[in-house]
Amino acid sequence: MSGRGRGAVAVAALWAVATGAGAFTLGDGTQIRCVVDLAGARYEVPEEFVGNGRVGERHPELGGSAAVVRRAEDGRPKIVFDTYMLDSIRAKLPLARDFVFLHECAHIQLATLDEIDANCHALREARRRGLIDADGEAALGDFHRRMGRLPLKYGTSGVKFWERTQACVDAPARDDEIHAGFPGEADTPFAP
After folding, report:
1. CA 28 to CA 73: how far, in whole Å?
2. Strand pairing partners for 79?
């Protein structure tokens, strides 16, 4: 079931602007963390960057994805990023690299494997926080549409993935949309 359709109790989920090591650095230099309330406690989701960023050295654990949500050693979620993939994405559209982070954080905040829900929440949050304007959103849409064929969980193509994201974003938001937790093996299919 998608994150929008769950009956779980809503919890506080935050995007924290951060300073210091361990925060994800957005294209504008702002550092941000994925922060959720897990079992009544504030949890800053750790990030791990794998690979050395060189062509042909994509990290096999990520299966060709730019980022995935995995379990940390303590069983709580972490976001794992492929350095080469992120660098390739940044070279094409720096905003898309930022969106990868927002998308993966959304998987954790919504406790969902649903890729449309994660994209929807990430785009809503980017709008709400002023991280994206109309031109940026148009560029991000073009970036998605150029993805070509994708697995069924993304709608089978970049065009459908973005169309479904837009339809979700344009629908009224639900009060029970945020459910912090661990969604499982979620990934972001952005390709260089």
Report:
1. 31
2. 47, 69
Query: What's the whole-model pTM score?
Result: 0.79
Chain centroid offset of residue 129 CA: 15
Res 6: pLDDT:
31
What are the backbone dihedrals phi and psi of residue 21, each rounded to the nearest 5 degrees, phi first?
A: -65, 150
Block mean pLDDT (10 aa), the chain, length 192 = 32 42 80 87 90 62 81 90 88 94 94 93 91 95 92 91 93 58 45 33
What is residue 1's predicted lDDT score, i.e. its pLDDT? 34
> What is the DSSP annotation of the chain?
--GGG--PPP--EEEEE--STTPEEPTTS-EEEEEEEETTEEEE--EEEES-S-TT---GGGTT-SEEEEE-TTSSEEEEEEHHHHHHHHHH-HHHHHHHHHHHHHHHHHT---HHHHHHHHHHHHHHTTS--HHHHHHHHHHHHTT-B--GGGTSBHHHHHHHHHHHHHSPPPTT----S--SS-EE----
- pLDDT for residue 173: 67
